[in-house]
Amino acid sequence: MPAPDTRTPTAQEDLALLCRAAEHAGEIALQFFRRDPKTWEKPGAGPVTEADYAVNSYLAETLQAARPGYGWLSEETPDNTERLDRDTVFIIDPIDGTRSFLQGSGSWAHSLAVAHRGQVIAGAVHMPERGFTFTATLGGGAWLNGAPLTASPRAALDGATLLANKFSLASKYWPHGLPPVRRHYRPSLAYRLGLVAEGRFDAMLVFRDTWEWDIAAGSLIATEAGARVSDRHGHALRFNTEHPVSSGLIAGGPAIHGALMHQLG
């Protein structure tokens, strides 16, 4: 009998695992899509559907069986402190954009990431209804369906395109004046980060506290495409923290990111 493989997987191997799992997760989710799935309200967190739970169950079983030494953090799994003792963890949002899923829109995604000692090293954002898969590994670039991604090189804030909800442009947030941008919106945070990585939008931001599972994969994809990604205060992101939230999120080409931070004071 051959000896068990005790070698530490590479980021590329982890990404391949994430992509295989995300593709099958999409097949599961599509069985419920536009078919009136059972839905519940999570207090203070919005809706969750039987599709979210089915995808989470599949991913938890498949990914943890493949990497039994990794910790686990998922929106749909009760959290515990065991993951804090692991150097490497999965950070998973089974369906990012559940409201979009329920509305029959295609702007929802499976967000799957692997973080090592607080830094994401592999990430996949898969959008089954649209046929998109954004991927990245640390130091390996960012890709959309195998094509390389480059974030927007735009330098001028005036007229830049910004993915944000309408409340983000309230004057109370901008002591140096409202940024002269053109606002757009997509419901999935993971998708917004992918769109910034793709260069289709110059930047995105969110001011509310943001769960790690919403942004882990997408933040790596945007960074590897050349965007700068930080919390709303300009601080670098860390993952697998005891309270797994970021103080908001700002992502964009380096010049636009800097200009937004200036406007924020």
Question: Describe it for me?
Answer:
It holds the Pfam family Inositol_P. Belongs to the inositol monophosphatase superfamily. Keywords: Hydrolase, Magnesium, Metal-binding. GO terms for molecular function: 3'(2'),5'-bisphosphate nucleotidase activity. The chain has 265 residues and is an alpha+beta fold. The chain has 2 domains: 11-148, Fructose-1,6-Bisphosphatase, Chain A, domain 1, CATH 3.30.540; 161-264, D-Maltodextrin-Binding Protein, domain 2. 29% of the residues lie in helices and 26% in strands. It is built from 6 helices and 16 strands. It has helices spanning 11-30, 50-66, 98-103, 189-198, 212-224, 254-264; strands spanning 39-42, 46-49, 71-74, 88-96, 109-116, 119-127, 132-137, 142-144, 147-148, 161-163, 182-184, 203-206, 210-211, 228-230, 245-246, 249-252. Helix 1 runs antiparallel to helix 2 (50-66) and helix 4 (189-198) packs parallel to helix 5. The longest helix has 20 residues, at 11-30. The model has no long low-confidence stretch (mean pLDDT 95).
Biggest β-sheet strands, sense, barrel: 7 strands, mixed
Second rung of CATH, namely the architecture of the largest domain? 2-Layer Sandwich
Tell me the distance between the termini.
63 Å
Number of helices: 6
Structural class: alpha+beta
What letter string, H or E per element, gives the SSE order? Answer: HEEHEEHEEEEEEEHEEHEEEH
How many domain units? Answer: 2
Task: Indicate the radius of gyration in whole angstroms.
Answer: 18 Å
Average pLDDT number? 95
Q: Which regions have little confidence, pLDDT < 50, spanning 5+ residues?
A: none
Kindly report the spatial arrangement of strands forming the biggest sheet.
3-4-5-6-7-8-9
